[in-house]
Each structure stands twice: as structure tokens, then as C-alpha cells.
Design a protein that fits this description.
alpha+beta; three-stranded mixed beta sheet; 11 helices; single chain; 327 residues; 2 domains; four-stranded antiparallel beta sheet
Length: 327
């Protein structure tokens, strides 16, 4: 007999009496963003918008219904993360990748959960059915299954479903950078000490694509403008990925194993589509606007594409200390 687990994307039920992770009836809640994180960086009262911009919440108001065992498991994970955080980059780097997957996944899934609830309520007001494409149901259902590994007998074997990169990063004290993409399951987090980028369901292929620049970075403490460019590369790589990540999921009475199937190209279609520098420049503009860098600075006629990661002529890594921009 196989293990039967909750999947809210089968019936698209996101009611607040059911634990977001296990489906158990509950009256308890946990915050989407860890309390210690909100307290340390004092952003609990800041507002965050839903994707269509018509609804916003404070970060502290974003709460997930959860069973006691789920709440306990995430609290224990947060204690472990905070202990690692005290040791900066070395501490975070020493954490197991699955722990980083679960720590980042809590926030990405939490925002996804709120998007689902908001869209479901909006469609109900319009008296129309709430639905998702089969592709999104499968993607989000797989992601939800992987998150259940924090409390259920679920293990990852062989190729992992994610790319997670951790590296030294310099910010001014008490400043941090955070972004997520709930549809594409991407996460970016940077503070004074380390940066973290996670593609939570790419089967490692985006990390492989960016392997060369990640190797060039080794031994350097990145400038924040380099961090933004690196995440833009990951983000755009995800955008042009032309294959759907797939998994070998084996379900037995004693547990579930998940193995990511390596993404390979067939004869008619490469793994990644065409890298359009015009589109990438627009994406970079969104990330670099805080430095006053505009699209026309990034891509200019008969000039190399602006990069703070690689010298456009030699392709050598740009040393962070040579960058004359604020932290």
C-alpha cells in the first residue's frame, strides 16, 4: 500500500481550516516569513502586493494555517538557520541543501498559497470557476510534495530538483535584499555576509548553465550590484528554459523517493531558447534602477553589454573592490 499525502492542487482547496502542508484540520497558524527575520530587519509592517497589484498585505499579516507538527518542524528549522546565520557565509554554506530548500520554500510557497486564495475568492465573486492549467497544477503539486519532506518520510535520491547557490556578499549592516517568483519558484536573499539564490524546481539545469560564472566568483565577496546581475542571469535562464522539469516519484508504504530526471535536449530543440540581450537588458534595468543605471546604459550601439560580473573583452571576473558604487 502506498503512502497517501495531501495535494491541494488536485481540488484547488486552500481553506484556512486545513493545514497548508498536510491538510489536517487545524486552528493554528504560522507566518509566511519567519518572525526572527521580520524582527531583525524590521519589515513586518511593510506592505507586499499580490501579483495583479489590486491587493496588498503587511508581511506580518501573511499567515498559513498549519498543524502543530508542521509548525514545530519549521520552528526547529528556523532555529537551525538562525544559528548558521550567526556565522555568516560559512554558517549558511554548511547547511544541507535540503534545509535551504525547505527554508526558502516556506516563503515562496506561502506567497503562492496567498495568490491561490486571492484568485479563488476573486473568481467566486465573479461567479466563475477557479482553475489552473495542467502544467501549473503539476508544477505546484510537485513543489508542495517536496516541501512535505519536512514532516513526512520523503527523501531525495540522485539528481536533486533544485539549484541552490550560496556565496559571500557585502551589504551595509541591517540591509537585505529579497525577491521571489511564485510562478517560476525562484528565490533571492542577500544580507551583510552572504547571498543565496535558489531555483526550486529546475532539476539543476540553471546551475549548470551558470556554472562558469559561479566558478569565477569563488574566493570573492560580491558587491550587491554583482548579486543583482547574477540573479538576473538565473531569472532569465529560467524564462528561456524550454523543457518542463520531470521527476521519478516512487511511492511505497514506508515512504516516497523523488529523483529529478536530468533535462536533456532533443535534436529539434535546445535546452534553452535564444538569449535576447534586449530582453535581458530590460530585466537588468529593473534590478539596477536603484543605482541609477538605465537600459540605455546597459546596452548601447557598438559597445559591449554592460556587466559587473565579467570583463566584456577578457571575460575575467570583475573584482568587487574595483566597482565604484555604494553598498
Amino acid at each position: 500500500m502506498s503512502l497517501a499525502l495531501y495535494n491541494p492542487f488536485q481540488d484547488l482547496i486552500f481553506d484556512d481550516q486545513f493545514c497548508f502542508l498536510t491538510g489536517d484540520l487545524t486552528t493554528e497558524k504560522m507566518t509566511v516569513y519567519p518572525d526572527r527575520l521580520m524582527d531583525h530587519f524590521k519589515f513586518g509592517t511593510d506592505r507586499i502586493e499580490m501579483m495583479d497589484k489590486s491587493k496588498s498585505y503587511t508581511y506580518a499579516d501573511l499567515q498559513l494555517p498549519c498543524s502543530p507538527r508542521v509548525k514545530k518542524a519549521f520552528e526547529e528549522l528556523e532555529i537551525k538557520f538562525q544559528a548558521a546565520y550567526q556565522n555568516g557565509y560559512e554558517g549558511i554554506k554548511a547547511l544541507d541543501e535540503q534545509e535551504l530548500f525547505l527554508w526558502t520554500g516556506r516563503m515562496v510557497y506561502g506567497m503562492l498559497y496567498y495568490e491561490m486564495r486571492y484568485e479563488s475568492a476573486r473568481m467566486m465573486r465573479l461567479r466563475e470557476p477557479f482553475n489552473l492549467s495542467p502544467t501549473l497544477r503539476e508544477r505546484f503539486g510537485n513543489f508542495h510534495l517536496m516541501l512535505q519532506s519536512i514532516v513526512e518520510p520523503i527523501s531525495f535520491v540522485g539528481q536533486k530538483p533544485w539549484t541552490i547557490a550560496v556565496f559571500p556578499l557585502k551589504y551595509s549592516a541591517d540591509i537585505f535584499s529579497y525577491r521571489d517568483d511564485t510562478v517560476n519558484l525562484l528565490f533571492q536573499f542577500g544580507v551583510n555576509g552572504f547571498g543565496l539564490i535558489a531555483c526550486l524546481q529546475d532539476n539543476g539545469i540553471i546551475g549548470e548553465k551558470q556554472k562558469e560564472i559561479l566558478q569565477k566568483m569563488e574566493g570573492h565577496v560580491l558587491h550587491p550590484v554583482q548579486f543583482e546581475e547574477l540573479f538576473a542571469r538565473f531569472h532569465y535562464s529560467d524564462y528561456i528554459l524550454q523543457y518542463k522539469p520531470e521527476y521519478k516519484i516512487e511511492n511505497a508504504e514506508n515512504g516516497i523517493t523523488i529523483e529529478a530526471i536530468p533535462i536533456t535536449a532533443n535534436a529539434n530543440r535546445p535546452v534553452f531558447g535564444f538569449w535576447d540581450e534586449e530582453v535581458f537588458a530590460q530585466l537588468l534595468t529593473n534590478y539596477w534602477s536603484v543605482y541609477g543605471i538605465q537600459r540605455e546604459d546597459i546596452i548601447q550601439f557598438q559597445k559591449p553589454f554592460l556587466s559587473f560580473l565579467e570583463n566584456p573583452y577578457s571575460k575575467d571576473f570583475v573584482k568587487p573592490e574595483s566597482i565604484d558604487l555604494p553598498f
